[in-house]
């Protein structure tokens, strides 16, 4: 008779192998190249086990992206650096976070595409909030603005994310192959974009009385 614990461990190992293989494919070649077939090959398993453990590609990619984003240590460390003013902590977080996203083709676009899974599941949203340190982000924003209404703070955070994500996502779309060449659009460097955004968005909170 097989030991149940060994069967469970083998299944857990296979699931982690699949997840790690997906993360590595995204790191090496971008989200578009992380097909189920290639994931199975890299994990040295079969497609049936990929489907068994994750149900569908969307769920697997979502978990892999969460794991990858969780490794952006230097970005999240900025939220903990009490030596910096709250505004500077938030600014440095976004700059470093987006710098990482730019290293992985299509990752920002895929994160937005995966948002329907996050928002439609309490479990996925809780996991996303934990990975993204949402509570710490909102707390930092509250320090800057002195706003106490949670709905207003959530709205402001959504606006900031939209503003900083859009250029990265647009760049991802422009780099996708198509029938016609992408238009030649020049944007400021990432650091300058974030500086411009923060100067405009937080103008009234940084004015001295």
UniProtKB/TrEMBL annotation:
Q: Does the keyword Disulfide bond apply?
A: no
Q: Name one Pfam family in it.
A: TetR_N
Q: Where is the HTH tetR-type domain?
A: 12-72
Give the source's domain of life in one word.
Bacteria
Q: Which InterPro entries match?
A: Homeodomain-like_sf, HTH-type_TetR-like_transc_reg, HTH_TetR
Q: Which UniProt keywords apply?
A: DNA-binding, Transcription, Transcription regulation
Tell whether DNA-binding is among the UniProt keywords: yes
List the molecular function annotations (GO) for this entry. Answer: DNA-binding transcription factor activity; transcription cis-regulatory region binding
Q: Which PROSITE patterns match?
A: HTH_TETR_2
The DNA-binding region ranges are: 35-54
Supply the name of the protein.
Answer: TetR family transcriptional regulator
User: Mind giving the lineage of the organism this protein is from?
Assistant: Bacteria, Bacillati, Bacillota, Bacilli, Bacillales
């Amino acid at each position: 008779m097989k030991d149940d614990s060994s069967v469970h461990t083998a299944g857990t190992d296979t699931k982690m192998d699949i997840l790690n293989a997906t993360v590595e494919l995204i790191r090496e070649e971008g989200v578009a190249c992380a097909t189920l077939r290639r994931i199975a090959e890299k994990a040295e398993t079969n497609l049936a086990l990929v489907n068994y453990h994750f149900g569908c590609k969307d769920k697997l990619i979502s978990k892999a992206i969460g794991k990858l984003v969780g490794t952006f240590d230097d970005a999240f460390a900025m939220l903990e650096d009490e030596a910096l003013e709250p505004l500077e902590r938030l600014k440095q977080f976004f700059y470093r976070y987006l710098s990482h996203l730019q290293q992985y083709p299509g990752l920002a676009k895929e994160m937005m595409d995966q948002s329907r899974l996050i928002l439609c599941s309490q479990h996925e949203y809780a996991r996303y909030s934990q990975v993204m340190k949402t509570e710490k982000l909102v707390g930092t924003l509250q320090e800057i603005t002195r706003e106490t209404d949670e709905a207003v703070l959530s709205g402001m955070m959504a606006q900031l994310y939209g503003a900083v994500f859009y250029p990265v996502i647009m760049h991802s779309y422009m780099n996708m192959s198509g029938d016609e060449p992408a238009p030649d659009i020049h944007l400021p460097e990432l650091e300058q974009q974030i500086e411009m955004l923060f100067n405009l968005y937080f103008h009234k909170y940084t004015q001295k009385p």
